[in-house]
Amino acid sequence: MFIAGLVVMVARKNIIAILLGVELILNSAALNFAAYTRFINQNLEGNIMSLFIIVIAAAEAAVGLAIVIRFFQLKESVHIDDATQLQA
Predict the structure, then answer these.
(1) Which residues does the chain have with pLDDT short of 70?
(2) CB 50 within 8 A of CB 27
(3) CA distances from 42 to 15, 27, 34, 39, 55 (A)
(4) Are 78 and 72 in contact (CB under 8 A)?
(5) What HEC string does 20-65 produce?
(6) What is residue 23's predicted lDDT score, i.e. its pLDDT?
(7) Residue 70: which H helix or E strand, with range?
(8) Is the N or the C terminus of the chain less surrounded, counting Cβ atoms within 10 Å?
(9) In a domain, 9, yes or no
(10) How far is the C-alpha of 51 from the C-alpha of 81, rounded, in Å?
(11) Given phi > 0 = left and psi -120 to 50 = alpha, else beta, which region is 87?
(12) What is the CATH number of the domain that holds 32?
């Protein structure tokens, strides 16, 4: 899942697709922490870290989509090549 997110981030020119790649990477990290807790450690440290990652991912999605919406209002495009200058 991490590699899929990394490939999406590198290969796409769409800002929304890049944000989805970041979400995949964060979700793969949360999944790894949860699996570590379940199979190796048997305490709550990995689950707490997974919950923290999910909260950070939700905040990142909200702020990222707000930036994308504002960028679309200004430039009428969501391509990363048009974002060389983010000034109004």
Answers:
(1) 85-88
(2) no
(3) 39, 21, 10, 7, 22
(4) yes
(5) HHHHHHHHHHHHHHHHHHHHHHCCCHHHHHHHHHHHHHHHHHHHHH
(6) 93
(7) helix 45-75
(8) C
(9) yes
(10) 34
(11) beta
(12) 1.10.287.3510
- What's the confidence (pLDDT) of residue 77? 83
Q: What is the predicted pLDDT for the residue at 86?
A: 63
- Contact predicate 15/68, CB 8 Å: yes
Residue 86, token pair as written in the block: 């983010």
In total, the chain counts a number of residues equal to: 88
Residues contacting 43, CB < 8 A, separation 6+: 37
- Residue 72 Cα distances to 7, 44, 60, 79, 85, angstroms: 24, 42, 18, 9, 13
Range of the domain at 43: 2-83
pLDDT of residue 51: 93
Q: Specify if 25 maps to a domain.
A: yes
